[in-house]
Amino acid sequence: KWSIRRRATARPSSAPHERTDHFIFRLRVTMFACTTTSLTASAFAPTMPKTTAARRAPAHARTTPVRTHARLDSGVGCFGSKAGMTQMFTDDGLCVPVTVIGIREGNFVTMVKTEATDGYNAVQVGYDVVREDKLTKPEAGHCKKAGTPPMRHLEEFRLGSAPEHEVGARLVPTEMFKAGDKVDVRGATIGKGFQGAVKRYGFSRGLMTHGSKSHRQHGSIGAGTNPGRIYPGKRMHGHMGNDMTTVKGLTVMRVEDDCIIVKGNVPGKKGSLCKVTGTKIVGKSDGGASKAKKSQKVVVA
């Protein structure tokens, strides 16, 4: 029955000359497509280097990307160490949680870079004074050349205009911030070690009873034969925490020479390094560079 049904529903075969004409037509279409593809590829393909040495060079060495802009800071900030959290009462009697950022010995200007000498404007600040034998000889010599004590942490603040700081000067928090200012605090989050997907990404767990064997498993991670692999970035178990993050827009509650008290929490555990800078306001803290960049028009010749 199956063979009879197949024969009854099969299409009638074409004549021999019709099949030949159809084959010739398909062959011509294929040849035309191949010719068009080769012409298009040759016309728009990048020119390969002619020399053997240039051909052996990697792609990133042959084409050098041009960096049009860099991330600028709102100004020169300072560094501190997270001391812990407590609470303060406002003038209205409201109890708010605050974080105390202690200022250890440091925050010295170790280098000043200008666009004329280095190609960009920046101020390098050192923090956390240590013994000289705790640093390498190049690091200790760099601090000695600047006339500052040896410091463990060195970092730059990129600026949009030429800096006015002097090498060897100490940055005082009371001269940089005041109560009511908005600041951004950057630091490393608390490391949690190797964690599962439920804690790491907040996945829902499975049934705990009724014969279920998948209590805290993440479930399927992809198909089988197609694509035959796991896509990059798939959320699964792994290392959690110890990532650099920035908490923006924190309100400064109080500023002293040895501490900065901000409203809310900051990343990291007690004793971790914190980078405190003023909150970047578009058009104000960057000297109007952000607005000027948006207003630029691209002219195609």
From TrEMBL:
Organism domain of life: Eukaryota
UniProt keyword list: Ribonucleoprotein, Ribosomal protein, RNA-binding, rRNA-binding
Record GO biological process: translation
GO cellular component: ribonucleoprotein complex; ribosome
SUPFAM superfamilies registered for this protein in UniProt: Translation proteins
GO molecular function, a single term: rRNA binding
InterPro entries assigned: Ribosomal_uL3, Ribosomal_uL3_bac/org-type, Ribosomal_uL3_CS, Transl_B-barrel_sf
Gene3D superfamilies reported in the protein's UniProt record: 3.30.160.810, Translation factors (2.40.30.10)
Family: Belongs to the universal ribosomal protein uL3 family.
Protein name: Large ribosomal subunit protein uL3c
Native source species: Ostreococcus mediterraneus
Taxonomic path: Eukaryota, Viridiplantae, Chlorophyta, Mamiellophyceae, Mamiellales
